[in-house]
Request: fold
Amino acid sequence: MHFQGYRGRDHVTDRLAGKAIIVIGSATGIGAATVMRLCAEGAHVCAADLNAQGAEAVAAAARDSGGNAFALPIDIADETSVNAAVAAAVERLGKLDAAHINAADLRTIFADSNALDVDLAVFDRTIQVNLRGHLLCTRAVLPHLLAGGGGAIVYTSSGSGHSGEPVRPSYAASKSGLNALMRHVASAWGREGITANCIAPGFVMTPEMIAGGQVPPEVLSAFTKATPSTRVGEVDDIAAMAALLLSAEGRWVNGQVINVNGGALMA
Ligand SMILES: NC(=O)c1ccc[n+]([C@@H]2O[C@H](COP(=O)([O-])OP(=O)(O)OC[C@H]3O[C@@H](n4cnc5c(N)ncnc54)[C@H](O)[C@@H]3O)[C@@H](O)[C@H]2O)c1
Reply:
């Protein structure tokens, strides 16, 4: 019941009615919240993830809330898997209007020490999933969006992509690269009706982090103190921005890295 913390139906807009959207990296955390939010706003959603069981649980939760969602397995480190999953998603959705490419391999982040010490296997894996994987997803979804006359791509980046930190250089480099990839897509295909944007979240306590007790109180307190807000982030804060950018209301937002961070980084 890891999706208990998601508030998928707190809002009543149907601005995504009729939209077919794939969320890649959707089994937990921000992606799961986005699936719930997009469904609540009327979209038909494919929840794709390496964690196929988790994605299926999220899609089932969305359906239980009255939404229209299904799950598919995908490994964004593998080109064949990406192409097969996107093709299967489009076949089932009947078209593709938008994509939220959100997946990241976060298992290596604590070993992502500094530029002198980091194991190159950690660096390579981080780039393989968080950057190369997003290129593969872009190549798979873009032709379908163009075939429909345009569409929106939202990537999940991170404040670390432009803040400068003494730790996690591989992660930060992958997110900086993702920002550059996004700007390229926005620039190359904007005139054909494509919008591409990154959301750069600040520190977000996902329901899984809360349930797992992974964040010690002193760390949470430090993040809260570093944020000129009343709290740290919640997954729904990011899902709300994704829904806006994927809707018609976001059609003139293009090529931007949008910080959603309670003011923790003002750039
Ligand atoms: N939580 C935060 O504080 C925070 C802050 C900034 C940015 N982000 C970014 O937000 C995004 C979501 O993070 P989250 O905190 O919800 O973590 P999460 O681990 O809950 O979500 C990541 C998802 O990606 C999936 N994934 C991992 N490798 C994959 C692969 N090879 N193929 C397909 N799916 C794969 C995971 O199974 C998981 O469902 C990530 O891109 C992360 O870098 C999170």
Remarks:
- The mean pLDDT is 95.
- The chain has one domain: 2-254.
